[in-house]
Amino acid sequence: MEQISKKFNEIKVESNILYVIATPIGNLGDISLRALKILSSLDIIFCEDTRITGKLLKNYGIKPSKLEVYNDYSNQKHRELIIKKIKSSNIKFGLVSDAGTPLISDPGYKLVKECIKNSIKITHIPGASSITTSLVLSGLPSHNFFFGGFLEKSKIQRKKQLENALNLKSTSLWFESPNRLIETLKLMIELNNESLISVLRELTKLNEEIISGSPSFVYDQITKKAKLKGEIVLVISNNNQSHYTNEMILDLIKKDYSKFSTKELALYISNKTGLPKKSIYNRIIELKSQ
Fold it and tell me: Counting beta carbons within 10 angstroms of the beta carbon of residue 63, is it exposed (0 to 12), middle (13 to 18) or buried (19 or more)?
């Protein structure tokens, strides 16, 4: 502990720099020592919501610096005032979002762009991100991926986004509202029920949930729930060589159970998934004996 404390004190925090700091996406323990040191040393922290940032600081016994709002409603005039303040005053500045890494689907990039334009140094204190967490937990291919941001509210525009996602050779990740998720899953079933998807919500929190499988399988699981809460990440893959869980294989068997003989169905699913025909055959026999 003494060694950690010594390293903590060695972290330097400079003036006239904008520190872009990642904060936890759920579990408050997911923050680095460096981030805590810098947050405790800043004079002004620009944040989306002062109440949320204040709660994080209080959790770690950090006496709140001056918290100033910078969010979706901040305009160019506001950014110019911030730039002037950073350039002319000998104090320490930081930028945080409500959760996760700033600039990911929030207005922070506009402020960073202005800093670069005005030759103001920027540095990033890395940490939690719902994008990388979702990619890790989805079980879908992670070597090549695309982040599309928020799915559109318009059904027509959202359908176009999903069509494009299904044409990609890489895994794609999207933010979606709990209120529109069921409608989005219906669109996925309509467009390509052979694809693999993962719905993740309440990441790193007590009620963290990950549902993976075909769109119809995920839809069936989601519709069993009384009400969905929390932020949702939808991960989409059109790669049929992805990892198949037992639930996903069972879903494939039930889907075509009455169309083929046991031998034909085992061969069909084996060709589709790349999994051994014998193991699928045994699963079908097991299901029939129940």
Answer: exposed
